[in-house]
Amino acid sequence: xxxxxxxxxxxxILMRGREYYEDGRVIDLxxxxxxxxxxxxxxxxxxxxxxxxxxxxxxDMSCTCPYAEDHLYCKHMAAVLYAAENTKDITIEKPKxxxxxxxxxxxxxxxxxxxxxxxKIMHQNELxxxxxxxxxxxxxxxxxxxxxxxxxxxxxxNYLGYNQFIEYHEAYDFYHELxxxxxxxxxxxxxxxxxxxxxxxxxxxxxxxxxxxxxxLATTVDxxxxxxxxxxxxxxxxxxxxxxxxxxxxxxxxxxKEPYIYxxxxxxxxxxxxxxxxxxxxxxxxxxxxxxxxxxxxxxKKYISGPYIxxxxxxxxxxxxxxxVIDFMSEYLENGDVALRLAQFYFEIEMFCEGIxxxxxxxDSNFNRYGNIAKEYLINYYTKHxxxxxxxxxxxxxxxxxxxxxxxxxxxxxxxxxxxxxQQIRKxxxxxxxxxxxxxxxxxxEEEMYEELMVYFExxxxxxxxxxxxxxxxxxxxxxxxxLYEKKCKKMVQYTNGRRHYMEIAMYLKRMRKYxxxxxxxxxxxxxxxxxxxxxxxxxxxFLKVRS
Length: 548
Prior knowledge:
The protein has 548 residues and is mainly α.
């Protein structure tokens, strides 16, 4: 791209945006000429708009997330910028090379000549030698674990420095180098040298436990995540008859009792639940879980749910009688997770009355998570079984409670009425509904209540959110929107707060120029401010860019 947008973001925000992009969280990316609109899936789904000019740099961007509402560049914007950078066709294509491809040349080379070259260059390049050995490990009779351990030690040493501390600005590079190294040795898991992989995982986890670092970016947890990926691969590729298989099983159990470092709970759950599924190991798991349940103090049984859920899954896998499964779970119904899982089980075996009774109890729980899941089950059940009155009652109850899915349920409620009925009750429904701002605005658009939508922005001054609704409001209220931007810019220009502050004002001025009479108004404002604030050099530079 012609413009390096990465300079606009704090490093931590930029890296999280890059991860969101690489994880495929940018969805519904639309390219409208040089403008991009995308939805980024995170804690909630957020809408991002990026506007480019013909040079390849962007003119404006906005996001509906709370972070961006404070006029800050967020990780969702960065994610969409990365996605746009890799999809839009505004860069100059590199000319095709006139040289023959490497693959075609290799085919022409004599095998012995190629071998001689490979041996020669590997003597000169230690990294190439290591990668060669990793890739072709199954051809080596013996491989020393120590050389792999030494490489790990070297990576740690490079980042720890003289004070034995990994600084914040180096933590991400440390994570990437270590993760890439483990990707390079993953081929060992397919060879007869599997034990080396096991020893490397254990060695690194233990070493991480004693590393002091600024872990603001959770890089330690991310490294543990990479190691768990490798451990899962190793388990998959190890034959159950191999003694290493049982050692890996015991290792997974040991990690539960005393993990070396913090790791995501779902990673250990996956290791326990998705692997070692032979009956012999299911029974060993059951013994392990029974011991864990026995050790739970009486006053903690209401809060610690892991062992109960593990046993529930195990006795189902071992095909215990249904009533035995129900009886076990019913002993611990005061535990919310257990109650939820039992209610779900009742629905699985079509004992709906029993499940509904538990779900209704969970809706009144102090934990929103239980209530949200219970509500989802009940709404789906009432919909499927055409219980309209109960469905309307359930949806209205959900809308009255604050809920991240209220827009979805609002639309579902609307479907239960004909057009005339809905017109009579919709304003009352909106009034009663406890809505997040983004849901409220989407509902106003759905109901074509554009005057109310415009009034909201005039009352609340949320111009970044207004940007998301520009297409709808621009033709209807151009003068009011222009006035709103003008008022905002006049207020902001009264105080100074660095170049970023002026860049934000310039962004609003660029938007204003796209409205009728906007160019004339913006030029007039810029002339006034350049005359009034002659000493503000950064302001002058940013505002003059608006005209270019």
